[in-house]
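PROTEIN DESIGN WORKSHEET
SECTION A - STRUCTURE
LENGTH: 228
TOKENS:
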């Protein structure tokens, strides 16, 4: 039996390239990865950029909060491979027309970027994408705002806790899926599980045919899936 579960690269391919780097995304696409998960914030002048943390300290040669820099200012800082902080526009140019599933995470749980959903959805709608984007967030309000702006897109709540009635919750909140840190069985809601790097855990999830796993090492996950 071949598992139908898709494999998404968590922040690209962090085992080989800086996380959330264009180099990592480009490599993954060249290797025909199923999907990419990436994180989006807004600069001070409302330009979407791709990074995990709210501050640039850990992943660039600079310091400070993304929200305190203009796009021109933040572009002076580089990732460990020398590339500037990627913009969403650059990322969309890279993936345009490519058969890759996208999971765009609104990073609005620690700092809320006013207007991020409208700006990002506008850019997505202008891009030639092969598959609908799955928008995820730990902040349910971002998903509600996204759904209000464009109900045709997919919205999935990132949960690190068990939800009592996952299907009822998803229906009430207009969610297409739940992205789970801890797996719980559902049947009508898409289940994408993060961040899974252990071969035994991957095997179990592929056996269960979850909708997707989100992993730091897509090549390892692909080997495991091929053997299921
Ligand atoms: O989407 C799964 C995962 O990316 C959520 O956590 O902190 O890695 O963005 P985090
Ligand atoms: Mg993320």
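SECTION B - SEQUENCE
RESIDUE ASSIGNMENT:
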């Amino acid at each position: 039996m071949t598992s139908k579960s898709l494999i998404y690269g968590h922040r690209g391919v962090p085992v080989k390239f800086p996380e959330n780097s264009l180099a990592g995304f480009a490599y993954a696409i060249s290797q025909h990865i199923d999907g990419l998960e990436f994180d989006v914030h807004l600069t001070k002048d409302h330009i979407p950029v791709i990074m995990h943390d709210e501050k640039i300290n850990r992943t660039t040669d600079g310091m400070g909060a993304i929200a305190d820099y203009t796009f021109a200012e933040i572009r002076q800082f580089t990732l460990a491979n020398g590339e500037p902080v990627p913009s969403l526009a650059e990322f969309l140019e890279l993936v345009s027309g490519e058969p890759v599933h996208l999971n765009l995470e609104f990073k609005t749980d620690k700092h809320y970027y006013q207007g991020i959903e409208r700006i990002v959805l506008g850019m997505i709608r202008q891009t030639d994408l092969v598959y609908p984007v799955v928008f995820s967030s730990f902040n349910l309000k971002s998903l509600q705002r996204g759904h209000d702006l464009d109900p045709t897109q997919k919205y999935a709540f990132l949960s690190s806790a068990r939800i009592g009635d996952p299907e009822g919750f998803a229906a009430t909140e207009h969610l297409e899926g739940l992205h789970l840190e801890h797996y719980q069985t559902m049947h009508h809601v898409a289940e994408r599980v993060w961040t899974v790097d252990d071969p035994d855990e991957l095997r179990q999830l592929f056996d269960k045919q979850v909708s997707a796993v989100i992993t730091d090492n897509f090549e390892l996950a692909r080997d495991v899936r091929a053997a299921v």
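SECTION C - NOTES
The radius of gyration is 17 Å.
Residues 8-227 form a domain with the TIM Barrel fold (CATH 3.20.20.190).
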